Structure formats: C-alpha cells, structure tokens
Amino acid sequence: MLNSLSGRFLILTTIFVMLAEILIFVPSIARFREDYLQNRLERAQIASLALLADDMIDSELERELLENAGVFNVVLRRDEVRQLMLATPMPRPIDATYDLREGTAMVLIRDAMMRLTEPENQVIRVIGAPVREAGLLIEITMETAPMRMAMIDYGIRILILSAVISVVTAFLLFIAVRAIIVKPIRGVVGHMQRYAAAPEDARRIITPNAGVTELREAEEALRAMQTELIAALRQKDRLAQLGSAVSKISHDLRNILTSAQLFTDRIESSEDPLVRRMAPKLVGSITRAVHLCESTLAFGKAEEPSPTLTMLTLDDIVADVLDSERLAVGENDLSLSENIPPLFTLRADPEQLFRVVSNLVRNARQAIVASGKPGEISVSAYEDEDNWWIEIADTGPGLPKRAQEHLFTPFQGGVSKGGTGLGLAIASELIRAHGGALELDRTGPAGTVFSIRLPKGDGI
After folding, report:
1. How far apart are CA 441 and CA 327, in angstroms?
2. Is 439 helix (H, G, I), strand (E, B) or coil?
3. Which distant-in-sequence residues (6+ apart) come within 8 Å of 18 by Cβ?
4. In this protein, which residues make up the domain named Histidine kinase (predicted)?
5. Is the pLDDT of residue 252 over 90?
C-alpha cells in the first residue's frame, strides 16, 4: 500500500499537514505565553485595587492576594507616582525583565521558545499597561516554572489536536484521491491490460468516460493509440504472411511465365497451324499470372478499419446478399433460402458483416456450380445467453482435404480451383475484430456448414 499512489499521497498529506501545524504551533505558544503574563498582570491589578479600597489589609490577606495572582509583588504607577502596592519576600534576585507594551511578534516568539528550552525556575519582572486605563503601568515579579509547565501542557494539547487533524485530513484526502484519481487510473490500466490480452478485438478499445479533464484526455489518447495499433498489427500480419508466400509465388509465377515465353517464341518463329490453338493457352497463362500478382498485392496493401459496432437487423443484410447471389446463379439449378427469426438483431459492423456473409455464400455457390449438380444454400441464425450465431450451410461436394488443413491461411486455404484463399482469411480477420470467431462446423459429401459467432458481451 505504501508503494501505491494513494498510499504515498496519504503519507505526504500527513507530513505536510504536520508541518503546517508546527508552523502554527510556534506563534500559538508565543500567544499563550503573552496571554498567561497578561492574566497575571490583571490578577495583580485586581489585588492592588483591593488594597486601594482598604489601606488596612493585614499581612495574611496580602499574602493570599499575591498567591491568587501568582506573583511576589505588585508595583502600580498612577499619576507619575510609582507605588509598591503588594509585596512578599522573593526567593532569589530577578533574572530578566519583559515589557509587554513593546513586544513585537518576533520578540514574543523568541522569548516563548527560550522559555520552553530553559528548565531552570527563574524570577522575572513583567511590565504591562493596566486594564481600563487604571494607571500608567503595572509591574509584577513572578516565577517562571508554573508558566513553563502551563506552556508545555498547552503545547502537548496543540500537538495532539494537530495530529488528529492531520490524520483525519489525510484520510479524507486519501478517500477523495482514490475516488477521483486512483480509481479512474486503475480503470485505464485495466483497459490496457485487457486490450493487451487480445489487441485484435475492437470491443476492448477504451471508451473515454472520465470526469477529470486530464484523465479523459489520457483515455482519448489511449483510444487513438489502440485504434492505430489494431490497424498496424493487421498490416504487419498481412505483410508477414505476404513475405512467407513470396518465395512460393515467385516459383509458380516463374513457371507460368516460362510457359508463356515458350508459346511466344513459337508464335514469333513459326507459322505452324497449331499456333491458333496455342494462343488461348498463352492468354490463359498470362491471365493466371496477372491474377495471382494482383491478389498478392491487394492483400499486402489492404488496411481493414476497426469495426463500427452498432445494433442491426440481420435479415436485411442476408436479404441483400442472397439477392446479389441470385443474379449470379443464372440458369443453374441452385436455390437460396434464409431462416432468420423476425427482427433478429445483433451488434456488428454492417458493412463488414455483409462482406463476411457474402464471401461465404459466394464460395458455396461456386462450389455447387462447379460440381454441376443441383444444390441449396441456406442462411440461418439463432442466439443463446452469451452469443449470436449465424450459420451458412450448403449441399455442395464439401471442401478438399488440403483446403480444410489451411482453411484460413492466405494463399493456402483456397476452396475453389485457382483461388488464392484470401477470402476466408479476410472474413476470419473481420470476425476476430468483432471479438468473435468464424469456424468450419462440418464438411463432406453431404455439404458444408460454416458458423459465425458474435459475442454479446463488451469484452470486459
């Protein structure tokens, strides 16, 4: 706890409050000493007034008046006449004289600190102005030990009160700092940790909601960084995959272009009747080479944006996909159907989800058309407590074994002859960005079923 931000803030607050109380303690002690001496002067003045009222006070009463005043003698100056009003024998000579009429703040503080550090009991003379203008001045002599003990007692009470105030103040500030600063910071750190666990999941991008301006700016900066990092990670992943495929692509491309070169040489050097039959092969070879290069470059340059997650109605998207595919079916014996519950809603990026569903339906259509047999493609959806599910099922011939082994790997998982395998790789990446998964449920002679899982939670 002491190494935490709130713990250190608690310690520093306590220290600073104590320092402030110490700065208050010094003038407080000086003020207490001045009040103490003024109190003794007032008591002595009252005792002297009693003597003025009755000149025949006996020695016993005089001693009692001086004891009550806490002084040895009282001198009162009235009308420029200095009179010893009350007196008792002093135990020792006078050690110092203090005139309260001329004491500045610094002098009073100095005298108070000197008295606290002087343990010896001394006799001092104190001069002050009588209250209510009952004379020109009043002068008393007194011992310092009782005053010093009173100052120590007052100082201890001040220190105890200061300690209590410091602890209470520090505790309240500790609670406030934890609620206003530490808790939001921990929230930001928690978002960073959850994002680090799955940086491709767009649901884990922080949503700024802090009330403190500085923290909100930090959250907005973190959101921008996370968004940029997701794009950078995807681009880096594409480039890494592109690099691993370059050698294979180069080999295949070299063979294709070599064949094309042979055909070209034959065309240029001979008027053989077979040239017309070779010309289409030449065109096909070059076309395949160009298509392979374009697919490779498109994958390396593509930058998929982070999904914009909104609540949408699924049947609208599925209807658009199936309408587009029906135009491509033409005269083939292929039926397209959907089984979506009415008003079935889920959270996703509409454009990206359309691309994923369209890609899967198109692959299924191409597989069935290539088989030359009748077939059916259906899109269905359902939900459970934690996820939304979308299934794309077809009655095609099933996926080749090699395609199943590298289904979502670019350039290796093509499901159709001549395909690059980029479609399923991109579709899987888009669904992962939603926090979900694209999976192959089953495939075989009876058909193939792909499932899309989209989580209902927010990734926390």
Report:
1. 28
2. strand
3. 162, 163, 166
4. 248-458
5. no
Q: How far is CA 46 from CA 87, 183, 259, 291, 411, in A?
A: 14, 64, 129, 117, 110
- Alpha-carbon distance values, 26 to 20, 23, 108, 113, 114 (Å): 11, 6, 10, 8, 12
d(CA 221, CA 202): 16
Please determine, for residue 57, whether its predicted confidence score (pLDDT) is greater than 60.
Answer: no
The pTM for the full model equals: 0.49
What are the sequence ranges of the domains in the chain? 5-167, 213-301, 310-455
DSSP letter assigned to residue 269: H
Contact 28, 153 (CB under 8 A): no
CA dihedral 294, 300, 305, 310 (to 10 degrees): 60
CA distances from 251 to 34, 157, 246, 248, 331 (A): 102, 92, 9, 5, 39
DSSP element (H, E) containing 71: none
- Selected from 1.20.1250.20, 1.10.287.3510, 3.30.565.10, 3.90.550.10, the CATH number assigned to the domain covering 310-455 reads 3.30.565.10
108 CB neighbour count, 10 Å cutoff: 19
Closest CA to 368 of 407, 335, 401: 335
Q: Would residue 416 be called left, alpha or beta, if left means φ above 0 and alpha means ψ between -120 and 50 degrees?
A: beta
Per residue in 99-145, pLDDT tens? 888 778 888 888 888 888 888 888 888 888 877 665 678 888 888 88
Query: What pLDDT, on a 0 to 100 scale, did the predictor assign at position 431?
Result: 93
